[in-house]
Amino acid sequence: LMQTNAARVIVLDLSRSMLAQDLKPTRIERARFKVEDILAKDEEGLTGLVVFAGDAFTVTPLTRDTETIKAQLRALEPAIMPSQGSRADLGLQQALDLLQQAGVTRGQIILIADGVEGDLATDAAEQITRAGHRVSVLGVGTAEGAPLYDARGNRLQDNHGNPVIVSLDTDSLRRVALAGSGLYRQMTTANS
Questions:
Q1: Is the distance from CB of 64 to CB of 46 less than 8 angstroms?
Q2: pTM of the predicted protein model
Q3: Are the C-beta atoms of residues 167 and 17 closer than 8 Å to each other?
């Protein structure tokens, strides 16, 4: 029996900004659809799923059972996260831990996010590259962005009463992909 040693960890952003509606119906819905597309194309190898906001959590460790990952996707909403933020670095570190625990020497990490906080994610991507893995990034959202709403449907406002608009942070996401020796692409509704 021959099995591939290919391994991929998907790191999914569950920060509140993923509720923005510049992609219909919301960024998180489109991201979940894209994860399903990725899982449908992955015919062999191991796949894991990590989520992050203010902290990071493993949803599924590396497994060949993509149906388990698909079953978990529907429950993934920003509201389940205990703390808010956009700490992609913690998600990337969690993904690296999964690859190392499984003894994977050349893995792939796919970060699906609309932005990251500071340079921590770039530093994490550099560490992952030094460990022999690659980080690619799929940006979720648009440059124009969209207003952000709270759980009750009220539009969030800044200290001056202006609506909070969240835009895709392409520059920081590109830096993460570059540091991770991977690719950056903006998410499309097609299969590309």
A1: yes
A2: 0.93
A3: no
